[in-house]
Amino acid sequence: MEIKKVAYYNENKFYWKEGDLHTSFGMLKEIEIKKANSGSIIKSNTGKDFLILEATIQDNLEKLKRGPAIILLKDSGPIISHSNLTKESKVLEAGTGSASLTIQLARFCKEVISYEKNSEFLKLAEKNIKSFELKNVILKEKDIREKIEEENIDTIILDMPNPQEALENCYKSLKPSGYLVTYLPTINQVDTLVKSATQFLHEKTIEVLEREWYVEPHRLRPKSQMIAHTAFLTFLRKI
């Protein structure tokens, strides 16, 4: 992972890789950041106190190099929790993009196979996955609509505009009762998918909204801005 430590000043968060850390609240010297233990307080050159913590996977995902839009944590969490994924799961996804979801899946599953038909996106995904030192991810430059090579897949996740075009291939590749999960921006796309997926059980379609709150003395209220609609998550099961 590239981000090594994070520095907090009040609600402001700054990411550190190397060198001096320059912020709008002052500069933190590299030598002081390096020797600071997690939970330490160090002062900037302007006298501001910064809390230093070790960087997490989530911190690195927030700073992931991006090409196409990524699947946010508010959506990747429900995808993982609602599709019966375990440490023994073999998962296939299509539409790797920047590999944000791929990296999350690799944390929980035994094996992740990811199809991406765009060669430029694939190069970016390879670089991002390498930075996380993941050994259980297989990337393939393939179009899932043409063929799926793997069999007995526990869960398939599709981040593509017309997932109904891959339904037959997905059905053949999935284990009995396996999950097919789709990420679709519009309800029209969901409607088309569900009408086409006659060989699957439509378990549910959900939308996840994330609203953060101010939790400060004399200010306990929702923030004015929120992460609202990104996509509809549809969960189908092979029958």
Features:
single chain, 239 residues, alpha/beta, Vcp-like ATPase, Chain A, domain 2, Rossmann fold, 2 domains, 7-stranded mixed β-sheet, 4-stranded antiparallel β-sheet, 7 helices, elongated
Provide an overview of this structure.
- With about 240 residues, the protein is α/β, with parallel strands linked by helices.
- The protein has 2 domains: about 5-55, Roll (Vcp-like ATPase, Chain A, domain 2); about 65-239, Rossmann fold.
- About 25% of the residues lie in helices and about 35% in strands.
- The protein has 7 helices and 15 strands.
- It has helices at about 30-35, 55-60, 75-80, 100-110, 120-130, 165-175, 185-195, and strands at about 5-10, 10-15, 20-25, 25-30, 40-45, 50-55, 90-95, 110-115, 135-140, 155-160, 175-185, 200-205, 215, 220, 230-239.
- A 7-stranded mixed beta sheet has the order 9-8-7-10-11-15-12. The chain has a 4-stranded antiparallel beta sheet with strand order 2-1-6-5, with no helix packed on it. Strands 3-4 form a two-stranded antiparallel ribbon.
- Strand 13 (about 215) and strand 14 form a beta hairpin.
- The longest helix has 13 residues, at about 120-130.
